[in-house]
């Protein structure tokens, strides 16, 4: 029996020796546990940062979509306003011309040539005022200097009484609105 007890003690000692860790092994195990805890904490922190970045990205995407929608609305509204302005300007121009048309229609009712001529002359007298209200000015008078940017020379004439590039005759007056030429003046220019 003694033999049996010796064997049992030896086995217990061996197991104890095997399970007994050296202090270096225990420290390494503790270090691993600490390191694992640090890694888990880092992972949790990174997960939180990732969620925060996802939220920021979603917010930026939402801002972008709203901005794109606002721009699209602005573009449509601007187009509508532009079309409206064009229509209003056209209506205003026609409204200014209507009294002249009425007067021309009245003039056709006369049979006396002198009265018709007088009526047409009066109508033409109101035309500069109507054009001025619309911001349109007439140009191209004899004696002005020829400017190829605003005049269309259809003839050149040798005329010693006139200076070089001076307009001698105007066949068709020019009209402009600010810097925009509506119609070029057709003129004869002295050489």
Question: Which key terms come to mind for this protein?
Answer:
191 residues, alpha+beta, Nucleotide Exchange Factor Grpe, Chain A, domain 2, three-stranded antiparallel sheet, three-stranded mixed sheet, 6 strands, 16% strand, elongated
Task: Kindly describe this structure.
The chain has about 190 residues and is an alpha+beta fold. Among the domains are: about 60-135; about 135-190, Roll (Nucleotide Exchange Factor Grpe, Chain A, domain 2), CATH 2.30.22.10. The protein has three helices and six strands; from the N terminus they run αααββββββ. It has helices at about 1-20, 25-105, 115-135, and strands at about 135-140, 150-155, 165-170, 175, 180-185, 185-190. A three-stranded antiparallel beta sheet has the order 1-4-5. The chain is elongated, with a radius of gyration of 49 Å.
**Helix fraction by DSSP (H/I, runs of at least 4):** 55-70%
Overall geometry comes to elongated
Structural class: alpha+beta
The profile of the biggest β sheet is: 3 strands, antiparallel
Strand order of the largest sheet: 1-4-5
Compressed to H and E, one letter per element, the order equals HHHEEEEEE
Number of helices: 3
Q: Give a count of the beta strands, DSSP E runs of length 2 or more.
A: 6
Distance between the termini: 148 Å
* Overall pLDDT metric: 87
- Uncertain segments are none
| Cα-based radius of gyration, to the nearest Å | 49 Å
Oligomer: single chain
Strand content: 15-25%
